[in-house]
């Protein structure tokens, strides 16, 4: 996820991106839960399937109807529900420093409600501020993020060039010294 914005919720940072996606892994930890525990519930998968169809991401209801016939307790059933959630495009899992399970803004409040009703209200207000907030402030933030990314890329390139220079410079200096001496020997000496 790009352009991650951390919001403080009672002393803990909750990460959103500028499109309103929320890092479910961060917030689930705060409440002693795991995102997968929510994602393998039939009601959650039913909601994800219906939302996916409603916003044009695909009709997953037929697959959901097949899955709901399975025993929801078995690990094979849970794995199928997780695959369906990811297939929707509304749930993204990433590794690394910006990793975790990221939920589409339309899922964030439903997930937050499962965690805690007060947190759900807070979450809804943050998403609303991101999505409908002052556009110029959002544009300035995105511009600042792009400028920072560009500068980091330039710094990285400069660092590589400097490292290369450190190894190439002695050979070039030696070559220049050699030809300086050759040139001095070749010049006529006037008396």
From TrEMBL:
Record Pfam families: KilA-N
InterPro entries: HTH_APSES_sf, KilA/APSES_HTH, KilA_N
Record-annotated KilA-N domain positions: 3-130
Protein name: KilA-N domain-containing protein
